[in-house]
Amino acid sequence: MSADGDVKALRRKGRIVVVGASLAGLRAAETLRDQGFTGSLTLVGDEPYEPYDRPPLSKQVLLGLECAEDTALPRTRDIDAEWRLGVAAAGLDRAAKDVRLVNGDTLPYDRLLITTGTKARPWFHPEEAALDGVFVLRTRDDSARLFRKLAAGPRRVLVIGAGFTGSEIASVCRERDVEVTVAERAPAPLVGALGEVVATVAARLQRDHGVDLRCGVSVTALEGDPAGRLRRAHLSDGSAIDVDVAVVCLGALRNTEWLAGSGLAAGPRGVACDAGCRVFDANGIVTDDIYAAGDVARCPHPLFGYQFLSLEHWGNAVEQARIAAHNMLCASTDRRPHLWVPMFWSVQFGVNIKSVGVPTLGDQLVVAQGALDEARFVAVYGYRGRVIAAASFDAGKWLGFYQQQIEAGAPFPPDYALVDRRTDTLQPVDPAFPDPHLPTHEPTVTVTGHSPTERRVQFVAPHA
Amino acid sequence: MRLVVDLNRCQGFAQCAFLAPDVFALHGGEALLFTSRFDEALRDQVEQAAAACPVQAILVDFSDEPTKGAEGRVG
Amino acid sequence: MSLATMSAQITDFANRADPYPLYAALRESPVTRQDDGSYLVSTYYEVRSLANDPRLSNDLRNRPPGAGGPAVAEEDPNQPPSFIFHDPPEHERLRDTAMRQFGPPHSPRFLHDMREDLAKIITDLLDPLEGKTEVDVVDDFAYPLPVTAICKILGVPREDEPLFHGWADTVASGLDPSQGKEKPRQARVELGAYLSDLIDSRRRHPGNGILGPLARETGPGGSMSKAELVATSMLLLIAGHETTVNLISNTTLTLMRHPDILKRFQSEPGLVVPLIEEVLRYEPPVQFVPFTIALSDIDIAGTTIPKGSQVWLLLASANRDPKRFADPDRFDPDREDNQHLGFYTGIHYCFGAPLARMEAQLALPQLFRRIENPRLLADPPPYRVNPVLRGPRHLPLAIDGLVA
């Protein structure tokens, strides 16, 4: 039977298992049904909840504007699925083509989609992590617990790590009039994502809003009282702070342990897959029946030197899930590449921060519009003479333009006049990332087409 | 009934916050906050907000059914 | 059709009732250069892209000497242009100041709380049609509603309307690139003097409406000058006079031309929400934006628009682009993913859009609930002269009567 003949049978009566009842898993399931899949569809989730939206968990929920339980995602359609919630996947047998669950059940599949996402990196010291008052924030339950604690009026909150989640929590604390200290190992908040030039603005926002921001320090120990309640934190500069709440915001770990021994290219950095979301095995050979999407997936992006990007972005989860679902069900010639340009947003201290492209690749930066000291600007990042990313503070309406510049491989620095360009920031500067690891292989490519069916990559002559 | 806003698409035009101030609010000049769950009394507001979004970033699900098969299998 | 005369044909009154075949011809190439050096952009993705392009300026001081375009008093320091003719950061300063009184984040319920007032205005306009067998939807309804509403919102005395009605029309005619500039300029001076006096009195006695609090913004430490407030209030007053009237009358006309949809609408008033969005796509009240200027060379759709060129963004044409909207000449309120450009896009997105939507969504179900057996008496109806703010001058309907 030809591969494409298999596809017809698969669409009619195949068995598809989605591991990860998440945003990506849900949108993939909806796409499968949209595209006419009539076989059996099973969604597996380790939490006992149907798919919910995570961004509100560090914003609206902590502010008390809505309950953590009310964040279930809207459906775009009925998916007629078998749900296995509250029971995690424990293993994968590729030869038998089945997924084993922690309760011993096995789920046979013809196609498997991995959308297991990430979990919060826990505090490194297990006993300290178990103290009453020490939190992480990733799940609905985490958010509900932290909300209750904040509502009870803690004396001081310590946020460990000033990435996006940590900065958003610090912002919520100040809005709730809760004293907060932020400890960040780097010289400024968000420095890993946006570089120090932009991060300096984020630091000023924090301090202007009354955050006790301490940079260049790490938390060395959390100390409890005899009852096991957090009461003090010790910092690497020798100081100590009395706190009753600590929120550990040290990034995420990919949920790939369950794939150990499966022979897939899965590890702490995620599940490697091709641009069509097909997962690689450990030999770097692409599988044809296993796909990955969302935070757990790493796939090469042509616009960014074909580097394997792993994106913890809401929009990426949606888009990659749709591509994966489409490619699972179609003939090989109809497969689409996942060409989503990375994009994210954050809200902190009343400022809307958005980014498009991959700022961390940037070797130069210009403030193209607005001014850093007004906290309203667009910073554009260049990489070897082309526009690679842009970040905006309260200027998000312009980002579509810069996305087009990125997709077109436009020259950097921008040499054109534009509105709201200030004369004091015309020269490109080093964006000052802490640890640049620049790739060496970079054909210039552009993305063409408006709709998913049209989007393709085109090689172009490098810019002079 | 529930909704979600694709905040990548959202550019802070704030049409939803004008038309449905009980569900959507601006946080500062540009950032949008919304409540995911809403009840029948707010249905008209939400419909108007979703239709008015210049970038069609609001996804609304007027059904409110619990996930079939979800609860029974927990554990 | 000769390309050199395309903009002349668009502004030609003979094409006012149906400009869409012209737009279809223009869309054969997304960007069209005219002999006077201006560029017409007619396709959806290109219009949307340019409306969001920071290399395009709305500040008329950037236009080349001798260029056409709207008549605004950019040379007169006593008459600064309104925020639509500014770029950031001045645009944000002025627009945000006005927004503080009008909408979120500072006044999130201001418009929402006006719904009942608007509903009463609508009832008060429809009640007098009792006993009539013919109505002019424009004069009897679509014009007085937004005028009454904008007066209330600004805090401008409704009884002064006969005074400023003519000025408003004449200032708006300045947007028409084919018209002379002297009359609009004179009308600006007179309307400006009227508003200036009003602002002085509102500073002492704020009264209702947003002019009172805005007048206080012009004092020491405020965020705009008095001349800037005159310009802002003139913009809002004129926009309130000249645009929503078209949305309401274009919707009425379109419904009369689609009896099947009208019938459905009469039994399903909630249809008004997608219906208004489809009218904004299909017959947008603002047809095009003829005054943007390229600050540098812009490569788009295989054409380079040179620095200094005037660029027309044809919103109404983009809204009928078959590459973006399936079957674009079909009026379809059930259309999904209707990301029309009827209120423009980007930082200059229509300031009054939520008010226009609210008025239309309240007005049209009431109008069609109450008038019995409406019949269109002229098709096409007579149009206003203005090609930018396009809509019927009169819209006479025969009716059998009025339901209570």
UniProtKB/TrEMBL annotation, chain A:
Question: Keyword ATP-binding: yes or no?
Answer: no
Q: Which GO terms describe its cellular component?
A: cytoplasm
Could you say which cofactors this protein requires? FAD
The residues covered by the FAD/NAD(P)-binding domain are 15-321
Q: Which residues belong to any copy of the Reductase C-terminal domain?
A: 344-424
Query: Taxonomically, which superkingdom?
Result: Bacteria
Name the Pfam families for this protein. Pyr_redox_2, Reductase_C
What Gene Ontology terms describe what this protein does at the molecular function level?
Answer: oxidoreductase activity, acting on NAD(P)H
Record carries keyword Metal-binding: no
Q: Which UniProt keywords apply?
A: FAD, Flavoprotein, Oxidoreductase
* Name the UniProt record assigns to this protein: Pyridine nucleotide-disulfide oxidoreductase
- State the organism of origin: Streptomyces angustmyceticus
TrEMBL record, chain B:
What Pfam families does the record tag this protein with? Answer: Fer4_15
Keyword Transcription in record: no
Top-level taxon: Bacteria
GO function term, MF aspect, one: 3 iron, 4 sulfur cluster binding
The record, for InterPro entries, names: 3Fe4S_ferredoxin, Fe-S_cluster_ET
Tell me its cofactors.
[3Fe-4S] cluster
Query: Is-annotated flag, keyword Ribonucleoprotein?
Result: no
Alphabetically sorted, this entry's keywords are: 3Fe-4S, Electron transport, Iron, Iron-sulfur, Metal-binding, Transport
Summarize the protein's role: Ferredoxins are iron-sulfur proteins that transfer electrons in a wide variety of metabolic reactions.
Q: What is this protein called?
A: Ferredoxin
Per the UniProt record, the source organism is: Streptomyces angustmyceticus
TrEMBL record, chain C:
Q: Which domain of life is it from?
A: Bacteria
Query: Where does the record locate the signal sequence feature?
Result: none
InterPro entries given for it? Cyt_P450, Cyt_P450_B, Cyt_P450_sf
The answer to whether keyword Heme applies is yes
The entry lists its GO molecular-function terms as: heme binding; iron ion binding; monooxygenase activity; oxidoreductase activity, acting on paired donors, with incorporation or reduction of molecular oxygen
Q: Kindly give the PANTHER family that the UniProt entry links to this protein.
A: CYTOCHROME P450 YJIB-RELATED (PTHR46696:SF1), P450, PUTATIVE (EUROFUNG)-RELATED (PTHR46696)
* Protein's name in the database: Cytochrome P450
- Native source species: Streptomyces angustmyceticus
